[in-house]
Amino acid sequence: MTRPDELPDGYTAIPQRLPRNTTPTWEVELLISGVAVFAMLQLPGWLDDAWFALEPRLGMIWFEPLLFVYFYAKSAAVMLAATFVIHLLLRARWIALVGMDSVYPDGILWERLRIGPVQREVEQRLHDGTATAIERADNLATTVFAAGVTMATLMLSVSLLLAATFTTVQLVGSRFGFDIDFKLVLALCSLVVLIPFLLSRQLDHLYGARLRPGSLPHRTLAATLRGFARVGLGRTSNMAMALLTSHGGERRVVLLTMCIIAAATWAVIWNYETLREPNTLGNYALFPSLQADSSRTLAPAHYDEFRNPARDGAVPYIQSATVVGPYLRLVVPYQPKRDDAALRRDCPAILALKKTERSAATLDCLQRLHPVSIDGKPVALQYDLSSDSRTDRPALLAMIDVRSLAQGRHELLVARQPTADEQEEIDKNEAKTGSSKPGNPTSYRIPFWR
């Protein structure tokens, strides 16, 4: 700060200046945080909308890897939003300290505080002066800004790397006619990249000082570490994190970073679960908990007038809980996670047909895979190809004549095919019990009234 005794001759006052040690990037930091904070606060919701719109279109092969990408990308967005908000608060605190130092340049007047002599002694020893507090607040704001952006960038890089790796592997696999499991891709990445990297680092720690420069082991280890550094696994690949760890203590910074990333990821996963099951958020422990297919549960997703196409899953639905016309309009969305596995399992012959011949055979197979009954009686119907009018996702459409139904409550059952994982569990249970029960293990239950 410029003090009155530092004024040039002939001047009685000049505007207060910032401390000499102020971080030179403070204006840019404030500009970025102020502009980006509103966009970052909107980004997590946009990612939710994008994911819930995409999820029903995915089969099991693509569902798991893209779910990981969604988690990592949203974690990065959450960390960026939190970083910018916290940074703005810290910068506001720093500006407040600078302003108060200008208003009260003589600092704290300890004798005017209503505290005892012992507390005054303790407080004075802990107080390093206003200038030190201002500098500490300035440094903290810059450190939080750098650390938050660095961790968010790391999470975003991981998500993009996972997406690129799995997409490349799947494209190669589809070219040669086989599919790759996502867990297998992660395991291969760990074997090919992480394990050699960690092993070379450990060897350097244990034996690096003993290796003679220019020897074959020294050159091999140096070449390995150089290669990892060039692909982004070196310390200098992330200068901000290297500066933080070298000045703040590596173990403490790494532990803090892991805790922040874990907290952000856990928050994203918890939020994902609450979006899928909103009743998990709140004090509903004593509210009756019934399964979605229970006879006494009316799921809004099964009724076009109540469903939320941006959040509800791709489940069969009818036009309304009260059917007033002669026909009940049943829409059965195509679910790749369930229907792909069922078609491969129950109708393998269609895979050998030409594309021009496959459509009719596939529709006939789906007709058999999704039988319908009303009040326990099978219904003869015909599915036609259609789409969800509000999401444009492919669907089967059937118009069911309900003119002969009596007035009152009725139940529509639509067969639900198991996913590949569910079918594997069913097969294991059948192998244990020694019994085989063909057919669909569950059904969508849709009550309606005439």
Strand order of the largest sheet: 1-2-6-5
Return the structural class: alpha+beta
- CA(first)-CA(last) distance: 81 Å
Biggest sheet: strands, sense, closure? 4 strands, antiparallel
Individual helix count: 11
Shape category: extended
Q: Low-confidence spans: pLDDT under 50, at least 5 residues?
A: 10-15
What proportion strand?
5-15%
How much helix, percentage-wise, in residues?
Answer: 55-70%
Number of strands: 8
Overall pLDDT metric: 82
What order do the helices and strands follow?
HHHHHHHHEEHHEEEEEHE
Question: What would you report as the Rg, rounded to the nearest angstrom?
Answer: 32 Å
Walkthrough of the structure:
Mean pLDDT is 82; it is low at 10-15. The protein starts with 25 loop residues before the first helix and ends with a strand. The strands form 2 sheets. Strands 1-2-6-5 form a 4-stranded antiparallel beta sheet, with no helix packed on it. It contains 11 helices and 8 strands. It has helices spanning 26-54, 60-103, 117-126, 130-176, 182-207, 216-233, 239-248, 250-276, 336-346, 355-369, 420-433, and strands at residues 317-318, 327-333, 372-374, 377-379, 384-387, 394-401, 409-416, 442-449. A hairpin with a 2-residue loop joins strand 3 (372-374) and strand 4. By secondary structure, the chain is an alpha+beta fold. The protein has 2 domains: 4-180 and 249-275; 300-449, no CATH class.
Characteristics of this structure?
alpha+beta; four-stranded antiparallel sheet; 11 helices; extended
How does the SSE layout of this entry go?
Layout lengths: L25 H29 L5 H44 L13 H10 L3 H47 L5 H26 L8 H18 L5 H10 L1 H27 L40 E2 L8 E7 L2 H11 L8 H15 L2 E3 L2 E3 L4 E4 L6 E8 L7 E8 L3 H14 L8 E8 L1
Antiparallel strand pairs: 1-2, 2-6, 3-4, 3-7, 5-6, 7-8
Helix pairs in contact: 1-2, 2-4, 2-8, 5-6, 7-8, 9-10
